[in-house]
Amino acid sequence: MQITNDVGIYISSVVEKYSDMVFRTAYHALCDRHYAEDITQEVFLKLMRLLPDFDSDEHEKAWLLKVTLNMCKTYNRKTYSHPTAELTENIVSRERFGQGPVTEAVMELPEKYRTVIYLHYFEGYKVAEIAEMLGKNPNTVSSLLMRARERLKNMLEGEFDDENK
Fold first, then answer.
1. Does 126 lie in the same domain as 93?
2. Torsions phi, psi of 123, nearest 5?
3. Does the reported pTM lie above 0.85?
């Protein structure tokens, strides 16, 4: 593939601007640093191949998040349909991205809850925006957020009791 100078500059700027966000999104969806790195590369390769025309920076960001989440879903589908030997958790990744009991609890949630929590609290999207991104009803996203919060509350019960005294 021949990349023109303008396209190369554009891709470089998008990678610089959004690579951390894409990686964090993939990591939160997959809980595996190596697969998250692979997904991150694939997202930017897809951007380079398709070169979509975006209306705004927000449209560009939403497209990257949606592509990332879709690639993670595809990966998860392949993993569940073709089970492999389970790898042990990468402790370095957990320390880097799971700095504290709340983040660790979020990482233990099922993917559907992790995804909405991540998009809402880490990326700052509203329920309607998350619903559009995931192709779900806004009420479904609200329910997922409510259930995720309840699970987190139960998981973290007693975790911060000493701080209130």
1. no
2. -100, -10
3. no
